[in-house]
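To whoever picks this up:

The parser on our side crashed when reading a file containing two proteins. I've narrowed it down to the boundary between the first structure block and the second sequence. Both blocks are reproduced below exactly, byte for byte. First block:
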Amino acid sequence: MRLLVVEDDKDINRQVVAALEEAGYVADKAYDGEEGGYLGESEPYDAIILDMGLPKADGVSVLQKWRRAGVKTPVIILTARDRWSDKVDGFDAGADDYVTKPFHMEELMARVRALLRRAAGHASSQISCGPVTLDTRSGKVFVDGNQVKLTSHEYRLLSYLMHHTGRVVSRAELTEHLYDQDFDRDSNTIEVFVGRLRKKLAVDLIQTVRGLGYLVDPNQPAARV
């Protein structure tokens, strides 16, 4: 999962990005509304954390512009403003959730997990498909109840596919959502990680749909190709 943090306080920005990366996400960052607005409109993020009090363009204006442009990315407003009217402005502009500063990082991470689950249609912190269970809270993966050790890249790939079960995900989409904007993207890398995942999971979970991408389908047995 790839997220964007738009926050002008560099210490807070750094701390949030570090917490996201520690939780297994990829995070890009911006420090003003102009840069953040451009990235949010041009890059395919899974969620955005957006401060309201930004230089160059305030968060509400940025969010309104995204929604007018058809950007449907889930957004968590992050701000020091705690008046109810400010919250209403944020939600009316198109925000999906709201966190007031100062905040506990654990709460923000829990809200991020919940937002990503809701966006993908999952209600629980545990996403299961056949014998495989991915625990988004702990960042652990289990097969038949036994934990499987994955690298951060392998976990990100499996997490994205399991968040989008029942839908074919292209290699290009995986590349866009698993790596930050500065990563040297090579679609062949995806094939390598899929191969490693299949060996480690030792179950037929990830299907290859020729010419289209990969599919994790909970409604039918998967066959390797």
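<<boundary where parser fails>>
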Amino acid sequence: MSDKYDVIVIGAGPGGYVAAIKAAQLGLKTACVESWTAEDGKSQVLGGTCLNVGCIPSKALLEVTHKFEEASHDYESMGILAKSVDIDVAKMMERKAGIVKQLTGGIAGLFKANGVTSIHGHGKLLNGRKVEVTDKDGKTKTYEAENVILASGSKPVEIPPAPFDGEYIVDSEGALEFTEVPKRLGVIGAGVIGLELGSVWARLGAEVTILEAQDSFLPVVDQQIAKDALKQFKKQGLNIITGARMTGAEVKRKLVNVSYEDSKGKQEAKFDKLIVAVGRRPYTDGLLAEDSGVNLDERGFIFVDDKCKTEAPGVWAVGDIVRGPMLAHKASEEGVMVAERIAGHKPQVNYDCIPNVIYTAPEVAWVGKTEEQLKAEGEDYNVGTFPFAANGRAMAANATGGMVKIIADAKTDRILGFHVVGPQASEIVAQGVIAMEFGSTAEDLALTCFAHPTLSESVHEAALAVAGGAIHVANRRKKK
């Protein structure tokens, strides 16, 4: 087999494997390089962080623990008597591993079905669109390509006050592998990852404290939604402390002694485990030769234009290593766009319509702009909200916390932001994404017939509320 390809992709995560499959479907001779090796030291592992130690395993644990919490606390009020409900952590972890194995194995099957060549080893971009691959034995081989797509992903940020030790102080990956429920769990960072992982272990009985350096909770989220979510998280027992700057962590007698400063001064806390979830950084270690022609920006991301082209001819980059949100679905959309552009088509990713989700309970999801952003930009807008407390299906499901919020341009009525905190927010937000992708107005949604009874009726009512016409909740009086 020739070592010359139309497309070589480095990285088999959601950006890379999707780009490789799409390129192959478009008739391009495609290879995908991935260095991840299974525990046996031989087998290649596809799927990247998302499938192996990120989105998928964390959702598997979130789903199990949510069901456990419901059975432990909510069933009785619904007339279901399930006494002495217990959790088998080992079985839960075994199930999680099974789901991961099924999905990652599925990618190998998709590569085979689409004719993608899988190359096991560490890929490095050389000058002139050449890719050097180093295998597990240290042997190197060089491949040539007309186009190279860089999709090496990201890795957790490690902070000096709390270096990872793999046992007591762990990153997000380590937090998915606890063999027992820690009595006291500390989490550094109240972002998406910190909230999700904190929720998992809190539901199983851990006493969870989340320390967040920023003064506001979820500053990137619409603050009306964030405040509602914070109220519900605290009610669940999550101890979330904002404005808490960590200064040190030391393991003594099998406990993590954490020191931090907040508005009250210097503080100390002891935990059985500490999860550091302060963000992720682009993983570009050993990815680029000095003369590759690819440049990094001031934050360490690969510099690309809005079509994911780097400054080196024929070299593209997608996903967590480039600007924009570090989201699997964003990486996949970029991968598809690049593959199609290589094949001569002209698609574009609409970065204004990328949904964000926090898979806690309640879930938090949003697309578009927040009220705070629009205020800062001086935009004139109207807002419509509808609480799940007034939704019949939410009542039936015993999940009445939260709301749907729609923000529309005051002049054109075009939807500018769509925000949800509550049950199935991750699914409901898709309605906002579709509406915004098609340039819908709030009136378009208000004139749409929604099935009854559904959670989605709250979208309909929020859209009606934008113009002060909600049916099932009192509308705010307009100022004269």
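After patching the parser it read the second block fine. DSSP finds 13 helices and 22 strands in the chain. The longest strand covers residues 140-150.
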